[in-house]
Amino acid sequence: MTNKQNDLKLVCPDCQAEIKWEGELNLGDIVECQECGTEVEILSVEPLKYCELIEQK
Ligand SMILES: [Zn+2]
User: Fold this and answer.
1) How far does the centroid of ligand 1 lie from the alpha carbon of residue 18, in Å?
2) CA separation for the pair 32, 40 (Å, rounded)
3) Could you give all domains of the chain from N- to C-terminal order, each with its CATH number?
């Protein structure tokens, strides 16, 4: 049994640390880098695409 979700890897665009998350990753999810707190938005799950979330104030 294979689980593709576990093969996905997120790398923080800011500090290059690997970002870990729990559960499934879905389009539009926001995950936070444990190292620097940068938030990354999931743009696409398969293939995995993501970008640093820029908060607009
Ligand atoms: Zn980071």
Assistant:
1) 8
2) 6
3) 4-52 (2.20.28.160)
Q: Which residue has the tokens 């398969």?
A: 46
Place of tokens 């593709």: 4
Ligand 1 centroid to residue 3 C-alpha, Å = 25
**DSSP state for residue 23 in the 8-state scheme:** S
Taking only the tens place, the pLDDT of each residue in 1-57 is: 555 555 678 999 999 999 998 888 999 999 999 999 999 999 999 899 999 998 777
How many whole angstroms from 20 Cα to the centroid of ligand 1? Answer: 11
Q: Does this model's pTM top 0.70?
A: yes
